[in-house]
Amino acid sequence: MTEVSRSTQHTLLMSGVSFRYGKVKALDEITARFHSNAVAVLGPNGAGKSTLLRLLMSAARPDAGSFAVAGWHSDDRAGVSVFRQRLGVMPQGMRLFGGYTCREFLRYVAWLREVPSAQVEHAATRALEVVDLVDRADERVKRLSGGMRQRLGLAQAIVNNPRLLVLDEPTVGLDPGQRADFRRYLARVKDECLVVLATHLVDDAAAVSDEVLVLDEGSTRFVGSMRDFVGHPAGEAGFSSADVETAYLTLVRPSQ
Amino acid sequence: MTVAGQQMSRSSWWFRLGITDATSGTPLATGIVSFLAALTIGSLAGTNIMLPGWADPFNLGLTAVLFQAPLAIGSGATAAGWLLRHDVLTFADTTPRGRRAALTITTASVLLWQAAAVAGLLAVVLLRSDLAGPLTPAMLLLPALDVALVVAMVLVGSAVGSHVKTVFGAPVLAVGVFVWLYASAYAPGRWKLLSPTYSEIFYQNYFEPNHALVGGQALIATAVAISAAAVLFRRTAYRWVAVGVAFGLTVAGGASLSVASIDPVQYRSPPAQAACATRDRITLCVWPDSSDVLQPSLDALVSVARSARPYIAISGSFFQPGLQSLMPRGTVYNVPATRQEGGFDFVALRAAVDSVVCGKGRSRAASEFAGWLSARSSASYYSASSGRVSHLPRAKQQYRVNQWKSQFGRC
Questions:
Q1: Closest by Cβ to B94, choosing from A58, A82, A122
Q2: Residue range A41-51: average pLDDT?
Q3: Would you call B102 and A91 a contact, using CB atoms and an 8 Å cutoff?
């Protein structure tokens, strides 16, 4: 029995995970263990963050190694459908359906996630409440501001009450105020599921995450708690962005 | 939470999501364009020259596929391509239902609009047409082929759109389909069998569509639709079944085309009993749905026969085309396409000539005969000016007639 399959105390466990795009190695034997409910994946563009998230959201399979997350093992193809029922995903490039209302869009995602039909309306309302969009439920998505669309993106990711929530650069394109709001909404959901957040914005990681994985050129630069990452415990307001950025820059060269 | 939401069944969810999708975004935009185009074609196409009955309007609907098929394939490719380009399919891959479900909803939305476009065009054309004519099962093959082609085009478009990211995929497909339909309509020889549109057909009431030709094409179109669905929905368990069914339909369609004549029309099966009338030793039988022209046609034939006496004895049986099996020894009588004054006279004259002379020169014979008859009677059969014969003595006239008849073979 592998280490991954024996694991019960870890929220996310990766063992020798590798992935290639043709001849290009995107991930090189990533091994990491996480215990908390909020993991940030940091790294510059092209570091392999989105590739790692693709694996975690079961959109691709590792070429080598395996991982276990939210009670699912990556080698368990028979169980992937059940895993996906309790998976929330907020992809970076996905365009929301502009012609749908917010509630219609959440119904659509709930249906894709196989939320029982009797629970769909309740689930959609609950998700809209979390991101403070209930009063916009019947508004067309195309009429929402950029910040509201990101909140709706988070709502669709939690409409199925996920055990694993995967967010890929969720605050890109938002102004500082919208980003602060978004982190506030994210804080509401991270107690109920494992949040894996890929970002190159260190203040997002500082605000949300308890543990950190730093990738660079497909390899691991750091794995551990945020406290170990910045070198001191969190203050009353949490970890400061400046501390996280300093720690990050010592691992990843600024030129990159 | 609403009670309605709680009690919604699985199929209701499919329906509800389909309606939502069809009334928003790309499916709505392409659907409105297709629907308006269909209504425009249906409203502007000329129906005044079409013959009574259902075949001509149905054929007009099928001919409109020349424009509807490019719109259908373009709509499918645009809608599915949108899902692909904006990562909705990648997102759907992370859900239990997968991209198949997302594509199903969107393709169904496009199909809904295209079905509305086909139905709208046919409805407008039928409303503008004279439907007081026959409706046979073979005629229903025309709209069946129409629907099969449009469904196939939507599914092929969606299948390509879900694999090709470029925005040029849809226009390239649409232009390609238009070129195929246009070029195949003018293809030489038996290549024409591959053209699913038959313009410039006027279905006399004794004609119906060539069921081997139209049916074969409908089978092949259905096979294309099933193949595209197998590519589109990626359901491995059903893929081989779909491939098998598509192969079977292709073989059946090909076999049907191989025995089909290139002529897109054929005679209808003759009725058990034709509508017949007899007077002055002339019997005329027409299709039951032409019984309204039986008496004027018989009047014209009798008038011709009386005018020709005593030099030419015209008698016997005449029948409308397609009734040969009921009257094997008769002569064909073509009911005029338009019920204009004098129209019956000329077709009666032509039938009378055909009953007297045979051979290649019967058109010339009819012309000369018309001229001779015009001079003998008050009827204006033809614009010939050969009135001189009427002044000749009877023996001379008989001599002229015998000379005229001797130019042609005896029947």
A1: A58
A2: 90
A3: no
- A125:B1 CB<8 A: yes
pLDDT higher than 50, residue B2: no
Chain A from 41 to 70: CB within 8 A of any B CB: 57-59
In a mutagenesis test of the B interface, which of A57, A92, A95, A125 is the best target, namely the one with the most B β-carbons within 10 Å? A95
Model confidence at A230, in pLDDT bands (50, 70, 90)?
Answer: confident
* B43 touches B116 (CB < 8 A): no
For residue B411, the tally of other CB atoms under 10 A from its CB is 11
A108 touches chain B (CB under 8 A): yes
User: What SS3 class is residue B194?
Assistant: helix
For residues B88 and B341, what is the distance between their CA atoms, to the nearest angstrom? 66
DSSP state of A172: T
A156 interfaces chain B, CB cutoff of 8 Å: no
- For A112-138, what is each residue's pLDDT tens digit? 999 998 999 999 999 999 999 999 999
Note whether B6 contacts A82, CB cutoff 8 Å: no
Q: Residue ranges of the alpha helices (H) in chain A?
A: 3-6, 49-56, 80-85, 102-112, 120-130, 146-158, 176-189, 202-208, 226-230, 241-251
**B87 touches A: beta carbon within 8 Å:** yes
Beta strands, E only, B157-259 = 207-209
Distance of CA A245 to the CA centre of its chain: 20
How many A-B residue pairs are in contact by the CB < 8 A criterion? 87
Cα distance between residue A51 and residue B229, in whole Å = 30
Lowest mean pLDDT among A79-88, B330-339, B393-402: B393-402
Contact B8, B16 (CB under 8 A): yes
> Residue A6's pLDDT band (boundaries 50, 70, 90)?
very low
CA B381, chain centre distance (Å): 33
Looking at the predicted structure, is the pLDDT value of residue A67 above 90? yes
What integer is the mean pLDDT of B252-265? 93
| B157–chain A nearest CA distance, Å | 20
Q: Which residue of B has its CA nearest to A140?
A: B24
- Out of B7, B28, B87, closest to residue A93 by CB: B87
- Reported as a single tens digit per residue, the pLDDT across A235-249 is 766 777 788 888 888
B5 contacts in chain A (CB < 8 Å)? 117-118, 120-122
| Closest residue by Cα to residue A252 from A219, A206, A228 | A219
Q: Which residue of A has its CA nearest to B84?
A: A94
Q: Which DSSP symbol is given to B145?
A: H
pTM (predicted TM-score): 0.85
Q: What distance in Å separates the CA atoms of residue B313 and residue B310, rounded to the nearest whole number?
A: 7
Confirm or reject contact between A129 and chain B (CB < 8 A).
Answer: no
Confidence of residue B341 (pLDDT cuts 50, 70, 90): low
Q: Which residue has tokens 């099928």?
A: B62
Question: CA B146 → CA A158, B71, B214, B252, distances in Å?
Answer: 45, 13, 10, 19
SS3 A90: strand
Helix axes B25-44, B10-22, angle to 10 degrees: 70
Average pLDDT across chain B, whole number: 86
* Length of chain B, in residues: 411
